[in-house]
Amino acid sequence: MARPEPSHPPRITSDHLGSADWSSTMRIGILGTGRMATTLGGAWVAAGHDVLVGGRDLAAAAATAARIGAAGHGALRDAASYGEAVLAAVPADAAAELVKSLAKDLTGRVVIDCTNPIVPTDDGVTLSTGGTTSIARRMVEAAPDAYVVKAFNLCHESIWTLSPPLFEGEPLAVPLCADDPASLELVSRLVTSMGCTPMPCGGLSRAVHLESTAAFAIGAWWSGAEPRFAFPTPGQSPQPA
Fold first, then answer.
1. Range with top average pLDDT, 124-133, 160-169, 200-209, 225-234
2. Is residue 134 classed exposed, middle or buried when 0-12, 13-18 and 19+ CB atoms within 10 A define those classes?
3. Omega before 164 cis (within 30°)?
4. Calculated CA dihedral for residues 227, 233, 238, 241, nearest 10 degrees
5. Is a pLDDT exceeding 70 seen at residue 8?
6. E strand or H helix at 52, and its extent?
7. DSSP states of 60-117 as a string?
8. Residue-wise over 210-237: b if at least 16 C-beta within 10 A, else e?
9. What Rg do the C-alpha atoms of the chain give, in angstroms?
10. Per DSSP, what are the bridge partners of residue 167?
11. Cβ-count burial of 122 within 10 angstroms (0-12 exposed, 13-18 middle, 19+ buried)?
12. Number of Cβ atoms within 10 Å of the Cβ of 15
């Protein structure tokens, strides 16, 4: 699949994000060619968005783009400068350094962090960050002129192949953390276009809680447990007589 001509839109500023009248179609660059890149990218293509897959290995980027019907493929820098939003679908321990290397291209763009910095230990799954910071915060430090949003990190990649993701008759909720309201709005619109429900969870200071939640849930799944059974809603509890 050939890569599109580089007719990239102008860089987005915070003022632009706040006042833009976005069409239903977004341009999304994807950094990475793995499973999250494939399933989330495929879901976005199915929702009508224009996606460009970028990778260090151009052959892998081409194969992923062809698999999901993306608009094109290219190098990481091509994806970083492609559109309104950029998904960092790379290993958590490499995400901040990658974003730093692309900081100039990511200026003014919304960077979506779907990573989970988890490691298995004798005591179960834990965070490689120590739980004192988040990968999203490290991305901000690496590319301070980008707008980072933590999202899409709580579900296994297979969930994004569902169209739409419905559970017990309800659309999947996607927790989001962001400091910039306009960036939060943009990613919320992206979530809605997939048939899911945005669940704003506060600023990036709370992204570490999303990563901790992922560590808990993944550890439970790996042990054969079902983490959702630990979170009954108040309405499901019996009322006192």
1. 200-209
2. buried
3. yes
4. 140
5. no
6. strand 50-54
7. HHHHHHHHHT-SEEE-HHHHHTSSSEEEE-S-HHHHHHHHHHTHHHHTT-EEEE----
8. bbbbbbbbbbbeeeeeeeeeeeeeeeee
9. 18
10. 170
11. exposed
12. 9
Length of the chain: 241
Residue type for 128, please? S
Most confident of 3-7, 36-40, 237-241: 36-40
Q: What is the pLDDT of residue 123?
A: 85
Which two tokens mark 137?
Answer: 């915060």
**Tokens 């569902």 belong to residue:** 162
Provide the whole-model pTM.
0.88
Per-residue pLDDT band for 5 (boundaries 50, 70, 90) equals very low
* pLDDT tens digit sequence for 111-139: 999 999 988 888 888 888 888 899 999 99
What is the identity of the amino acid at 183?
A: S
Report the C-alpha gap between 26 and 151 in whole angstroms: 17
With CA atoms as reference, report the closest residue to 92 among 223, 207, 220, 180.
207
